[in-house]
């Protein structure tokens, strides 16, 4: 007997040891990367930038500046001289300005730049080494997350070292360059004045790059007519340019999702499918630096001064902005042989009228600002020839007529703090008149317009009369019912119908309320606050939406309550957001009821602290009519609730009834994106707590996509990712059959996790 006990004890000890030993194949999906200092630092920084914004006046990101390269006027001036001095090249014929000329939008207006051996500047340059990519602009490059089209340089100092030494570009040996500069007394004096107090010699290759970087940080564009509009001069943009701004930030084109204000660029690298130039080897872009997962991805460039920098894209394949717009309207690279699945998920086909295309081009031209363009020096210390001043050679400018007409000012009836709008007038005129604290009172009737809400502290209130409400009717022609950036905004009492892209959208706003809104057939979304802090959506109803009826994304401090969502692809979606309460909503007859997602390639990289409580989620068995290739098109028909990669999500007090695939699922990103996908977010759900809900008759007829994944229908689904997730439910069916509860011992939890993880790995 003692021997048997001893054997059992030894086996048990071995078992405990095996449980304690990390096994990568089983433990890689355990998660645990939530609630970290880095995560909370990101939350504070990301949402702090939003709250610091006011309307379209956005806070610029912090300009990356090395601690050992502080700014000084003397250093900037030294950098200016070096930038224009051909002494930086091996044969003393090429300066930085040959490829980044200030009069050519700090580019060279060539499709592909020309380096060593060439003569001339810009499109007239000939006889030299043709490079594989075009010159990106220096305008606002100081705000870039990384430098070059492929992000190979960490900052401007690092960037400056590349072209000087590249044998196809300036072809200079760095040590020989230092020796050449030491032979120029003026440079020796200037370097001693700027760097003489540091340890070691003042004139070094590193200090050369430091001075050039300091100069390039002065090349900032932030005073365009768009900026004047953003600062409150609502007459600074013409009517056409304002229409173009609306289209730019519309869900129809989705331009703003990669080129958002104020930098009009993005720190991420995107695959849009730019076609290769004939006879050129395929350019893999970021993948040549970062490896697998970034094939054909390139930096998202700034659009400031874009009219000055044609031709466009990394290889200059498009000559004009209209060509670029047409490329995206046709679905990006999908029209050039790229598989849609390889493209960024925001690249979708869209249609533009001739007027809309012209309006978008007009807006992009309104981003032009050369007020900080530096003066080309008359001479440089080396005595070598300096590039001359030139006329800009951008083909885009040649074909654009700059006719600016200020929009008319209209006066409506005012009664104290109320502005009265009737169907013979436009709501937009009321918004233009409104001042802080005003209410725009809209009487019943039909209004066919897109509202621009770029003011703060106003209420837009629909008035009910004889059971009639004011109706915003897009007539299946207009893209959006409303777009804007105002804070402390309430929109109350409207019917929104028949828009092609989106219902109501506010972006980077604080304290926004949507109340008593009914959206019907408004495109991708009904109610769409994105990158906001302080969101309330209540007593609204949405139907006929091809993505999410109520979508709150990249936002913080959210309440979605007492709403009805039916007949959509998904009813309610909380995406990449923090501190959300989804409460007392009725969600039925959608393909998916409620989604709480953390998706890659978005500005916010977190999904944390969402509570889904006391909702009635039933019969969400509608056919999924999401756009093919979109993320939401993969949500199985018959989904009650899906938590994907969210952290600390509590689900309690809800009724999940008659959802044919499953009642509530907690899954990681791999089920949607595949194990080989390269994520910029944590793909594992952590610390989710599903308890005390009412499940009835779920999973009775799982959708085809569920069956093809090797799964069955059930009340509860877990893909065995995230070790710290917990369930406490009675009388339910579940996959896997045993789900951990908070009171489980670590032995039970680890054993359960590894068994099901092993089986999941083996059988899929």
Describe this structure in words.
This protein is an alpha/beta fold and 764 residues long. The protein is built from 19 helices and 34 strands. The strands form three sheets. The chain has a 21-stranded mixed beta sheet that branches. Strand 4 (418-421), helix 16 and strand 5 (439-442) form a beta-alpha-beta unit. Helix 4 crosses helix 9 and helix 11 packs across helix 14. The longest helix has 19 residues, at 2-20. Mean pLDDT is 91; it is low at 1-19. Its EC number is 1.11.1.5. InterPro entries: Beta_helix, Cyt_c-like_dom, Cyt_c-like_dom_sf, Cytochrome_c_Peroxidase/MauG, Di-haem_cyt_c_peroxidsae, PbH1, Pectin_lyas_fold, Pectin_lyase_fold/virulence. It is an enzyme of class 1 (oxidoreductase). Residues 239-368 form the Cytochrome c domain.
Instruction: Please count the beta strands (DSSP E, at least 2 residues each).
Output: 34
Total count of domains: 2
Could you tell me the mean pLDDT?
91
Distance, first to last CA: 43 Å
Q: Evaluate the radius of gyration.
A: 29 Å
Q: What amount of the residues lies in strands?
A: 15-25%
For the record, the CATH architecture of the largest domain stands as Orthogonal Bundle
Give the overall shape: globular
Biggest beta sheet attributes: 21 strands, mixed
The third-level CATH topology of the largest domain is: Cytochrome Bc1 Complex, Chain D, domain 2
Poorly predicted runs are 1-19
Would you state the CATH class of the largest domain? Mainly Alpha
Q: How would you name the CATH homologous superfamily of the largest domain?
A: Cytochrome c-like domain
Structural class: alpha/beta
**Total helical segments:** 19
Q: What level of helicity do the residues show?
A: 10-25%
GO molecular function: cytochrome-c peroxidase activity; electron transfer activity; heme binding; metal ion binding
Organism: hydrothermal vent metagenome
Pfam families: Beta_helix, CCP_MauG
Subcellular location: Cell envelope
């Amino acid at each position: 007997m003692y021997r048997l006990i001893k054997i059992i004890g030894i086996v048990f000890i071995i078992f405990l040891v095996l449980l304690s030993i990390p096994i990568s194949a089983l433990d890689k999906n355990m998660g645990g990367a939530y609630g970290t200092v880095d995560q909370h630092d990101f939350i504070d920084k990301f949402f702090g930038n939003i709250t610091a914004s006011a309307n379209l006046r956005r806070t610029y990101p912090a300009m990356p500046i090395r601690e050992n390269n502080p700014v000084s006027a003397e250093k900037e001036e030294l950098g200016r001289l070096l930038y224009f001095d051909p002494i930086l090249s091996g044969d003393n014929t090429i300066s930085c300005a040959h490829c980044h000329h200030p009069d050519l939008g700090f580019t060279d207006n060539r499709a592909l730049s020309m380096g060593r051996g060439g003569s001339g500047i810009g499109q007239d340059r000939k006889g030299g080494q043709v490079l594989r990519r075009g010159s990106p602009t220096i305008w606002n490059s100081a705000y870039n997350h990384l430098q070059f089209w492929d992000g190979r340089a960490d900052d401007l100092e690092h960037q400056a070292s590349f072209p000087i030494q590249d044998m196809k570009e300036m072809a200079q040996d760095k040590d020989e360059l230092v020796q050449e500069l030491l032979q120029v007394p003026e440079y020796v004096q200037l370097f001693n004045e700027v760097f003489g107090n540091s340890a070691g010699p003042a004139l070094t290759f590193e200090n050369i790059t430091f001075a050039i970087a300091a100069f390039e940080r002065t090349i900032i564009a932030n005073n365009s007519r768009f900026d004047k509009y953003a600062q409150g001069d609502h007459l600074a943009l013409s009517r056409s340019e304002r229409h173009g701004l609306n289209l730019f930030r519309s869900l129809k084109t989705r331009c703003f999702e990669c080129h958002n204000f104020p930098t009009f660029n993005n720190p991420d690298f995107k695959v849009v499918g730019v076609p290769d130039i004939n006879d050129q080897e395929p350019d893999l872009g970021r993948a040549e630096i970062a490896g697998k997962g970034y094939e054909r991805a390139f930096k998202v460039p700034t659009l400031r001064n874009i009219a000055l920098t044609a031709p466009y894209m990394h290889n200059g394949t498009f000559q004009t902005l209209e060509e670029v717009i047409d490329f995206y309207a046709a679905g990006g690279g999908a029209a050039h042989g790229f598989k849609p699945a390889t493209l960024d998920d925001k690249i979708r086909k869209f249609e533009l009228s001739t007027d809309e295309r012209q309006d978008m081009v007009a807006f992009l031209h309104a981003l032009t600002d050369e007020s900080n363009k530096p003066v080309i020096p008359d001479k440089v210390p080396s005595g070598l020839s300096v590039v001359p001043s030139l006329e800009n050679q951008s083909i885009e400018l040649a074909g654009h007529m700059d006719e600016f007409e200020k929009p008319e000012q209209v006066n409506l009836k005012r009664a104290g703090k109320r502005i009265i709008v009737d169907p013979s007038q436009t709501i937009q005129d009321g918004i233009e008149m409104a001042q802080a604290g005003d209410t725009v009172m809209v009487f019943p009737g039909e209004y066919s317009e897109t509202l621009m809400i770029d003011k703060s502290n106003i209420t837009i209130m629909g008035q009910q009369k004889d059971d009639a409400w004011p109706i915003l009717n897009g007539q299946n022609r207009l893209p959006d019912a409303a777009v804007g950036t105002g804070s402390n905004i309430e929109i109350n009492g409207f019917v929104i119908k028949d828009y092609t892209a989106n219902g109501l959208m506010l972006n980077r706003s604080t304290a926004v309320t949507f109340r008593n809104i009914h959206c019907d057939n408004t495109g991708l979304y009904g109610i769409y606050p994105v990158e906001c802090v302080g969101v309330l959506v209540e007593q609204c109803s949405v139907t006929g939406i091809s993505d999410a009826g109520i979508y709150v994304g990249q936002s913080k401090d959210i309440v979605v309550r007492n709403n009805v969502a039916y007949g959509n692809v998904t009813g309610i979606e909380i995406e990449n957001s923090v501190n959300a309460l989804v409460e007392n909503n009725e969600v039925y007859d959608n393909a998916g009821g409620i989604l709480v997602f953390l998706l890659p390639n978005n500005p916010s990289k977190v999904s944390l602290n969402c509570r889904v409580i006391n909702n009635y989620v039933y019969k969400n068995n509608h056919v999924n009519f999401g756009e093919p290739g979109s993320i939401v098109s993969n949500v199985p028909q018959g989904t009650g609730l899906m938590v994907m990669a969210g952290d600390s999500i509590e689900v309690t007090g809800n009724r999940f009834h008659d959802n044919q695939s499953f009642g509530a699922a907690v899954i990681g990103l791999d089920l949607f994106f595949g194990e080989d996908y390269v994520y910029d977010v944590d793909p594992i759900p952590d610390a989710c707590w599903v308890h005390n809900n009412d499940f009835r008759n779920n999973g009775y007829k799982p959708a085809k996509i569920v069956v093809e994944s090797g799964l069955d229908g059930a009340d509860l689904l877990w893909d065995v990712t995230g070790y710290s997730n917990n369930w406490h439910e009675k009388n339910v069916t579940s996959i896997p059959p045993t789900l951990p509860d908070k009171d489980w011992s670590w032995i039970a939890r680890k054993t359960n996790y590894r068994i099901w993880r092993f089986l999941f790995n083996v059988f899929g």
